[in-house]
Amino acid sequence: MEIELNSRESAILEEVRRFLKSEVTPELLAESHHLEYIYGGEEGRKFVRKFAANGWLTPCWPEEYGGLNSSEMLMYAIRNEMAYARVPIHFAGAHMAGPSILRYGNDDLKKNYLLRLASGEIEFALGYSEPAAGSDLMGLEMRAADKGDHLIVNGQKTFNTHAHVADYHWLAVRTNLEGPKHKGISILIVDLKSPGITIRPMITMAGTRTNEVFYDDVVVPRANLVGEINSGFKYIMAALDFERMFPFGHYKKFYEDLVAYLKTVTRNGMPLTKDPLVRQKLAQLEIELEIIHHLYFQLAHMLDNGKIPNYQASMEKNFLTDFEQRLANTALEILGARGQLREGANGAILDGLPEWLYRWTVIETIYGGTAEIQRNIMAQRGLGLPRA
Amino acid sequence: MNYSLNDEQKILKDTARSFFTEELKSSLVREVEEDEQGYSRKLWESIAEFGWMGTIIPEEFGGFEATFFELSLILEEMGYAGYAGPFFSTVVLGALTILTAGTPEQKRSVLEEVSLGKRLMTLALEETGDGPSACEIATTAKKVADGFLLNGCKRFVPFAHVADTIICAARTGDGGKNGEEGISLFLVDRRSQGVSIEVLNTIARDKQCDVVFNNVLVSGDSLLGEAGEGWQLLQGVLRVASVAKCAEMVGGARKVLEMVVEYAKTRKQFGQPIGSFQAIQHHCANMLTCLDSSALLTFYASKRIGQGLSYEKEAAMCKAWVSDSYRKLTALGHQVMGGVGFIDESDLQIYFRRAKAAEQALGDATYHREIVAQLMGL
Ligand SMILES: Cc1cc2nc3c(=O)[nH]c(=O)nc-3n(C[C@H](O)[C@H](O)[C@H](O)COP(=O)(O)OP(=O)(O)OC[C@H]3O[C@@H](n4cnc5c(N)ncnc54)[C@H](O)[C@@H]3O)c2cc1C
């Protein structure tokens, strides 16, 4: 599939591809997989620093902050190449917090964090969710008391995925108890090594790790407040929009590997890929991947043309994450009982990736805004349907 | 059709429900998944005290002589509670096969011990993992002076690592049409020389095994049923076993729906219970449809089997439908629960993983729809 880029950007994308081909090691792949493609592991850091030194991690940022001033299209294309190569792809700092700092941060924050984010030197963890605040982030309860030159934070976060590998927390806290809820939230940048922070693992069904994070009288300098105090909800919403750009390369690669594998298998005396039922299923996935390609790059196109994607971002997230579940399930259907073998098991196919994806993709329609919330957005913002 | 249970059946079901509620807490379900044996010996012994291993075994062999329908009620409760262990492999794959194919002598020597919970069994059938099929059976049984020599590799054999007796399907003849002729069944002592077993690491951690038979010598009287007719003998067993698997799945589905609806009523977001959002209501309604449709097909097929009526098509329809429905139901359950259902500590994820394994066991929906097509004369 063609991606429309100018000649300078096409050359960059080619370079990125070459780099990924030559620099990705088995150790990096293994670490990346076991961290479910989040950034912050040792191998990942080694790799990304080299990668990011070219400005490739944040190509659409201004040059002074470590970018290439490129189009969004190039940014989307590079992220998708990274996903295809199965290197870390979830950058809470460079791709979620960073753009918000760029938009809302003061000069000091920009100077302090943007270059380090763009070079992959530091990583953030997203600290939004709390036990009582999942889809409804206005329900946040973690408190930050304003002490003038610093704030004192107390409370609990849950599902903070990068927290055990990251350097800083991108933390949403309640700074005002009076008035409407969405006008009492602020965003703080907190050094995760600050005294009073405890991080506890939460292990998922896919064997991956997310975290509970506890704050006990944690002191945060006022300089680490992002934008205006009590305006945090606006920044969260913006950062969530960045989060919703879900690349599909990882799943495309899995699909290609699956098809290649199935070509080598015979059942009832014929190659599996000649079985009409299997062909139907694979062809359907091929079509869906084509749609995802367009849904994804359309977002970049809109941004490059000065439009803000709203329902389109939700649609892309939903279509892709639903697709992932269909892909994993279809793989297991075609593979039969062998598909249920885990990594390392005798006879596991594609090293157990089908089985792992089957467990993993469950969460894709839930985090980053659930499928229901995305559909609400599509119906209300996209179609103008009334709220309940 | 009468859709209700009679008094005895109600008592049986209630007893099983309260027994498992009491004895099989979530913590034990988890322990068992991690356990190498894959079951709790203590629980096994308590189940044996109820005599449930002997549900369908004739009284003369120490059983209850109830019908398959009663067994399906127990299996449903096991599914509900998240039971994992060699009950299914022993009672359904093992005892049922003996009941179908064994000589009076074989029945006497095996079934009484099964009834008492003193003998664990399993069936070594599949080799490729594409669903039970005669043509994939390549394991051979060569006639020798003092019996047969077994050679071959079986895959996805449940609980072979703890079974006392493995029923092995192997070729004594040359296969004939579709490879359905010439298959014979043998009773093999798991501890025989030449048997090696490896537990597979699967999505459900359900102790399915690779079993290799390397020049395993079995005596002449370990042949089960007529030589060469093993596949025909197994046909009925496999269909019944499929429905038995559905009963477990229906139990699991019921538990998941209860768990999820309870959560939807209590979890609040945006100031209201999430169950008040139509999106969530629709998920729950779809789950309910998955459950009720599955329960009805399973009920009907189990009843027919219990009453000695023909059941081939009903069984295949049942396994085809329930395999898909249970998977969908657990996936919807995750969607309703949100992040917490994905964490190891939630029981939902256990049912989700097992739904996939149950779907694959004894042939998935595609496999059984093909049987339906054949039975339709297509
Ligand atoms: C593995 C993992 C990693 C995560 N990583 C992070 C992270 O790094 N940082 C972070 O802050 N959070 C993270 N999360 C949290 C994640 O964003 C939340 O789980 C998600 O937003 C959903 O919230 P919830 O789980 O509380 O579900 P709930 O909000 O309780 O939702 C439960 C159900 O109700 C539905 N629902 C809720 N409101 C509505 C409505 N108005 N209309 C219709 N349906 C509704 C939901 O769609 C869902 O189906 C992670 C979660 C997981 C499991």
TrEMBL record, chain A:
<dbReference type="GO" id="GO:0050660">
    <property type="term" value="F:flavin adenine dinucleotide binding"/>
</dbReference>
<dbReference type="InterPro" id="IPR052161">
    <property type="entry name" value="Mycobact_Acyl-CoA_DH"/>
</dbReference>
<keyword id="KW-0274">FAD</keyword>
<feature type="domain" description="Acyl-CoA dehydrogenase/oxidase C-terminal">
    <location>
        <begin position="230"/>
        <end position="382"/>
    </location>
</feature>
<protein>
    <submittedName>
        <fullName>Acyl-CoA dehydrogenase</fullName>
    </submittedName>
</protein>
<dbReference type="InterPro" id="IPR036250">
    <property type="entry name" value="AcylCo_DH-like_C"/>
</dbReference>
<dbReference type="InterPro" id="IPR009075">
    <property type="entry name" value="AcylCo_DH/oxidase_C"/>
</dbReference>
<dbReference type="InterPro" id="IPR006091">
    <property type="entry name" value="Acyl-CoA_Oxase/DH_mid-dom"/>
</dbReference>
<dbReference type="GO" id="GO:0016627">
    <property type="term" value="F:oxidoreductase activity, acting on the CH-CH group of donors"/>
</dbReference>
<feature type="domain" description="Acyl-CoA oxidase/dehydrogenase middle">
    <location>
        <begin position="125"/>
        <end position="218"/>
    </location>
</feature>
<keyword id="KW-0560">Oxidoreductase</keyword>
<feature type="domain" description="Acyl-CoA dehydrogenase/oxidase N-terminal">
    <location>
        <begin position="9"/>
        <end position="121"/>
    </location>
</feature>
<dbReference type="Pfam" id="PF00441">
    <property type="entry name" value="Acyl-CoA_dh_1"/>
</dbReference>
<comment type="subunit">
    <text>Homotetramer.</text>
</comment>
<dbReference type="Pfam" id="PF02771">
    <property type="entry name" value="Acyl-CoA_dh_N"/>
</dbReference>
<comment type="similarity">
    <text>Belongs to the acyl-CoA dehydrogenase family.</text>
</comment>
<dbReference type="InterPro" id="IPR009100">
    <property type="entry name" value="AcylCoA_DH/oxidase_NM_dom_sf"/>
</dbReference>
<keyword id="KW-0285">Flavoprotein</keyword>
<dbReference type="GO" id="GO:0005886">
    <property type="term" value="C:plasma membrane"/>
</dbReference>
<dbReference type="InterPro" id="IPR013786">
    <property type="entry name" value="AcylCoA_DH/ox_N"/>
</dbReference>
<dbReference type="InterPro" id="IPR037069">
    <property type="entry name" value="AcylCoA_DH/ox_N_sf"/>
</dbReference>
<dbReference type="Pfam" id="PF02770">
    <property type="entry name" value="Acyl-CoA_dh_M"/>
</dbReference>
From TrEMBL, chain B:
<dbReference type="InterPro" id="IPR009075">
    <property type="entry name" value="AcylCo_DH/oxidase_C"/>
</dbReference>
<protein>
    <submittedName>
        <fullName>Acyl-CoA dehydrogenase</fullName>
    </submittedName>
</protein>
<dbReference type="Pfam" id="PF00441">
    <property type="entry name" value="Acyl-CoA_dh_1"/>
</dbReference>
<dbReference type="InterPro" id="IPR006091">
    <property type="entry name" value="Acyl-CoA_Oxase/DH_mid-dom"/>
</dbReference>
<dbReference type="GO" id="GO:0003995">
    <property type="term" value="F:acyl-CoA dehydrogenase activity"/>
</dbReference>
<dbReference type="InterPro" id="IPR036250">
    <property type="entry name" value="AcylCo_DH-like_C"/>
</dbReference>
<comment type="similarity">
    <text>Belongs to the acyl-CoA dehydrogenase family.</text>
</comment>
<comment type="subunit">
    <text>Homotetramer.</text>
</comment>
<keyword id="KW-0285">Flavoprotein</keyword>
<keyword id="KW-0274">FAD</keyword>
<dbReference type="GO" id="GO:0050660">
    <property type="term" value="F:flavin adenine dinucleotide binding"/>
</dbReference>
<feature type="domain" description="Acyl-CoA dehydrogenase/oxidase N-terminal">
    <location>
        <begin position="6"/>
        <end position="114"/>
    </location>
</feature>
<feature type="domain" description="Acyl-CoA dehydrogenase/oxidase C-terminal">
    <location>
        <begin position="228"/>
        <end position="374"/>
    </location>
</feature>
<dbReference type="InterPro" id="IPR037069">
    <property type="entry name" value="AcylCoA_DH/ox_N_sf"/>
</dbReference>
<feature type="domain" description="Acyl-CoA oxidase/dehydrogenase middle">
    <location>
        <begin position="124"/>
        <end position="216"/>
    </location>
</feature>
<dbReference type="Pfam" id="PF02771">
    <property type="entry name" value="Acyl-CoA_dh_N"/>
</dbReference>
<dbReference type="InterPro" id="IPR009100">
    <property type="entry name" value="AcylCoA_DH/oxidase_NM_dom_sf"/>
</dbReference>
<dbReference type="Pfam" id="PF02770">
    <property type="entry name" value="Acyl-CoA_dh_M"/>
</dbReference>
<dbReference type="InterPro" id="IPR046373">
    <property type="entry name" value="Acyl-CoA_Oxase/DH_mid-dom_sf"/>
</dbReference>
<keyword id="KW-0560">Oxidoreductase</keyword>
<dbReference type="InterPro" id="IPR013786">
    <property type="entry name" value="AcylCoA_DH/ox_N"/>
</dbReference>
